[in-house]
Amino acid sequence: MDFFDFHHHKKDRAFGIYNLDCHDPVPDFPYSAGIHPKDIVSGGMEMQLIQLKELASHKLCVAIGECGLDAMAEADKDVQEEIFLKQILLSNETRKPLIIHCVRKYYEVIAFRKKAEQAMVIHGFNKKQGIADDLIRNNFYLSFGKAVLYNLSLQDTLRTVPMNRIFLETDDADVDIGELYQKTAAIKGIPVEKLSEQIRENLAQIQNG
Ligand SMILES: [Zn+2]
């Protein structure tokens, strides 16, 4: 069975969304392109945005991201917010959903929600129940990764997240996407086939804007 991997870094995996490194050639399978807060080049942002627009114009570019806000990144807050907003506007323009990277800036990211016309998916979600609740209330989707296998409080949170807001991803971890589906299906108390079908529906949902 093929399990959709919402955010991954593996060039040999076609069923999922490959996180394109900006130095990579355009692949012949679905990918996302964005400017990660840690990759912001001060003084070079205009150029980065031009490159991103080019990458985002391809049909196989199915999402904008990772982009977002990161309290640990070097670029200062205002610059991060400016670049994030530009990527939200690009998402509106291209009608492609956003894959969000967020470190300790959840409420700031939520404040940007109203600027976006397309879906926003928080990738690698592993935070507390209260943050999950606030994100869900604000129409975010949550993509879970390897932490679901061992983080008990995250498993409790996942149990409460509506089925129509969930994605699963391997990111850069050495973990089997099938194992993540099995674990999540067990946590949700549903057959893995049902989970897989639901995630494909969620995908269709975010691709229709
Ligand atoms: Zn990643």
Structure commentary:
- The chain has 7 helices and 8 strands.
- It has 209 residues and is of the alpha/beta class.
- The chain has one domain (5-207): Alpha-Beta Barrel (TIM Barrel), CATH 3.20.20.140.
- It has an 8-stranded parallel beta sheet, sandwiched between helices.
- Helix 1 runs parallel beside helix 2 (77-94) and helix 6 packs across helix 7.
- The longest helix has 18 residues, at 77-94.
- It is globular, with a radius of gyration of 16 Å.
- The mean pLDDT is 95.
- It binds zinc ion (ZN).
Short structural summary:
By secondary structure, this protein is an alpha/beta fold. Helix content is 40%, strand content 18%.
